[in-house]
Structures are given as C-alpha cells and as structure tokens.
C-alpha cells in the first residue's frame, strides 16, 4: 500500500483528506498543533467539528499515524501540503514559512510527488520547483471544500489537478483516482493557483454585493427582503442572487486580496471594495442600531453564534468577534453564545436570551431555528422569517 505524508495533517483540510484517503492509503500526519495532536492521540478524533470525520477516522485508525519527525517523509510516496497561508498588514502574501519548509524538504526528498492543497500565490509553485534538483514531481491540486460539507465534497466535487510536467500531472491524477471523482487537468500550475483564488474571490465579491444591497436598502428606509423577494420572483437571471450575511472564514477575504496583490490592487479593486463592504458590515449594523434604538448605551446585547458560518466551530476571521469589539465600547454589556465554540467567556443560550435586551443573530446555526425569542432580534439573514429587525 502506498504511503502519504500530510504536512498540516491535523488541520481542517489535512485531516479531512486523511480521513477520506485512508480507505486507499497509509497516512502519516505531521502537525505542530499540540492540542490537535493530544486530541487525536487520546481520543482518535479531530480537534474541530466536521460531520462524518470522526467515524471515518475510527474506521481506518490503524492506517493513520501521527509523526513528529519531518524526515519520516522519506518513506512516503506522496507528500501533501495542507498548511495555512496568510496575508500581512499590507494584504501581501506571507511566504517565509513556505520557503523555509521547502528548503528543508529539498534536502530530504528523493523521488516523491508533492501535492499542494494550500492556497498558493500565482507562480509560487514554479518557484518552489526550482529548489529541487532531484526527481521530485510537484502538482498544485487545490481544495475547494466547504466547512460542514468537507467529507461529502471531497468525495463528489471535481478535482482540479495542475502540474508543469506530464509525469507530475499523471502522478497527481493517480493519487486522486481511487476517489472516483471527475478530474480537470491543467498543464500549468499558475492556472491551478488562479483557479483556486478566482473561486474564492468570486464568492467573496458575490457576498459583498448582497451586503451592499442590504446597506442601500436600510439607508433608504426600505424593507430589504421585500425588495429581494420581488426581484428574484420568477426572474431567472437573478435566481442565484445571494442573501446578505456576515462573511468570514479563513479563505475568502485572504484569497481575494492575494489575487489583488498579484494583479495589482489598482486593477482588481473589486477585491478591496468587497473587503471594505464585508468587513465593515458589523460597524454598519451598529450605526443603524445607534440611529434607531433609544438608550442603546444602557442595553445588554446578546450575540447569537460566534463561528464564522452555520453549523461549524471554526472562528477564523469570524465577524462575530468584530461585532463584539464594536459593541463593548458602546453598550452596557455584551453576551455571547455558540453551540459549537467552547469559551469560558461565553454563556448558555437560555441565559443570553433571558438577560439580553436586544439579540443579534450573527451565525444562523440550524439549532437556533426552533428557539423562542420574545426580545427584539436583529437578523440580517432573515433566518427567523421576521425581517431584519432594523
């Protein structure tokens, strides 16, 4: 049986992939996260919530092993890179940790195939290829899976596979063949890198448009969802119009701004404008509250949901925390709750509902659908079907 070494193997992307491919491969997980290693070693579970992952891990646990020595990569056929990529305060990609890792790997690897799952700045894969003088095959094969559906989508979504040589392209294709999913082959890794960035940039801009429409409607004193329902009603060209919502997560904004940094922000200003709209939405909602709610400074505000999206425990770049910081300087007290996110600073749902004067739905977890709230609720998602509340 072939062996796979996943760097960043205990994170969302790495461990979900490990759980799925362990039906076909022996998998070694390399990760610097002590908490995640402890959770896996003791409980054989992920350190995050994702439907279906723990069952798969339990099923194939004998074929999944944590390793702490990077040199163990030598005994593997495939090396999967699933570590985080970041942007700095100027929205440019942070690349030092990537080059540091591959400088080390260039002295260890001999005949392996490297598969990138992490987002890469356009042209980055080609630069990394130059670090290797031996028979190393490198492919960029982006993940495009969504939190809450990761396991399902790994088994169903078409996989983009890009490489700069036919040998690397074939090796990467062979890696994904057991999953029996459609493959889209690109013979240029820059094309693959752009495919990932464009995917996330499109979604981020799409959400920004919906959020901007919401802001326009509220400023005009109109019922946004009355407008929304009217323009999509039996009108096919707007059937996919997004609803507004707090847009967070670890990829959408970051990848949009990476694409802008690569192409020059002045010529891809859509990404920067989308960031201003999406990141500014909590402040806009607060300003609407300040205009429309008397004695706001004396109110206790409850934030319902702190994860960045529904039915997950991922708080990376969650706008719930931005809203919390804004309100803490302006109101009597801020209470927070979330059924998935564990924090000593959070309160139970019933307590929040009882003690809050006003509740803001930040994350539309499905568990909230049947709760009863008699207090005023600000719900830009229209999750409860009673309008925005502003």
Strand order within the widest beta sheet: 3-2-1-4-7-8-9-10
Radius of gyration: 23 Å
- Gross CATH architecture of the largest domain: 3-Layer(aba) Sandwich
- Strand content range: 5-15%
**Secondary-structure element order, as H and E?**
EHEHHEEEEHEHEHEHEHHHHEHEHEE
Average pLDDT taken over every residue:
94
Weakly predicted, low-confidence segments: none
Head-to-tail CA distance between termini: 60 Å
CATH topology value of the largest domain: Rossmann fold
- Which bin fits the share of residues in helices? 25-40%
Tell me about the largest β-sheet: 8 strands, mixed
Question: Can you tell me the CATH superfamily of the largest domain?
Answer: NAD(P)-binding Rossmann-like Domain
Helical/strand content category: alpha/beta
> What's the helix count?
13
CATH class designation of the largest domain: Alpha Beta
Describe this structure in words.
This protein is α/β, with parallel strands linked by helices and 390 residues long. It folds into 2 domains: 3-187, NAD(P)-binding Rossmann-like Domain (Rossmann fold, 3-Layer(aba) Sandwich); 207-378, 3-Layer(aba) Sandwich (Rossmann fold), CATH 3.40.50. It is built from 13 helices and 14 strands. It has helices at 12-21, 34-43, 53-59, 96-105, 124-129, 150-154, 166-176, 189-219, 224-232, 252-263, 269-292, 319-328, 349-355; strands at 3-7, 26-30, 64-67, 78-81, 86-87, 93-94, 113-116, 137-140, 159-163, 183-186, 300-304, 333-337, 358-361, 377-378. The strands form 3 sheets. An 8-stranded mixed sheet has the order 3-2-1-4-7-8-9-10, sandwiched between helices.
């Amino acid at each position: 049986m072939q062996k796979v070494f996943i760097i960043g193997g205990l994170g969302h992307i790495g461990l979900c992939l490990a759980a799925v491919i362990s039906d076909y491969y022996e998998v070694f997980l390399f990760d610097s996260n002590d908490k995640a290693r402890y959770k896996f070693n003791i409980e054989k579970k992920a350190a995050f919530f994702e439907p279906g992952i723990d069952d798969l891990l339990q099923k194939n646990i004998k074929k999944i092993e944590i390793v702490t020595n990077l040199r163990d990569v030598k005994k593997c056929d495939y090396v999967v890179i699933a570590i985080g990529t970041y942007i700095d305060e100027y929205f440019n990609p942070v690349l030092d940790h990537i080059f540091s890792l591959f400088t080390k790997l260039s002295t260890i690897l001999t005949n392996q195939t490297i598969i990138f799952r992490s987002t890469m700045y356009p042209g980055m894969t080609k630069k990394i290829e130059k670090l290797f003088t031996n028979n190393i095959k490198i492919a960029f094969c982006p993940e495009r899976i969504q939190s809450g559906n990761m396991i399902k989508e790994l088994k169903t979504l078409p996989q983009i596979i890009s490489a700069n040589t036919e040998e690397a392209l074939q090796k990467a294709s062979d890696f994904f063949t057991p999953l029996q999913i459609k493959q889209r082959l690109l013979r240029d890794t820059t094309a693959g890198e752009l495919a990932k960035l464009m995917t996330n940039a499109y979604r981020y801009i799409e959400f920004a448009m919906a959020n901007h429409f919401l802001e326009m409607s509220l400023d005009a004193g109109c019922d946004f969802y009355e407008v929304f329902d009217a323009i999509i009603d039996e009108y096919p060209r707007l059937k996919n119009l997004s609803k507004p919502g707090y847009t967070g997560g670890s990829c959408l904004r970051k990848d949009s701004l990476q694409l802008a940094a690569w192409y020059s922000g002045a010529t891809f200003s859509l990404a920067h404008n989308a960031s201003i709209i999406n990141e500014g939405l909590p402040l806009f909602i607060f300003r609407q509250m300040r205009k429309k709610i008397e004695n706001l400074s004396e109110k206790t505000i409850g934030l319902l949901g702190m994860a960045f999206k529904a039915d997950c425990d991922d708080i990376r770049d969650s706008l719930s925390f931005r809203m919390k910081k804004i309100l803490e300087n302006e109101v009597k007290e801020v209470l927070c709750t979330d059924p998935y996110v564990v924090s000593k600073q959070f309160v139970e749902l019933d307590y929040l509902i009882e003690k809050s004067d006003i509740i803001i739905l930040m994350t539309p977890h499905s568990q909230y659908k049947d709760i009863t709230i008699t207090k005023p609720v600000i719900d830009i998602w229209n999750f409860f079907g009673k309008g925005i509340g502003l």
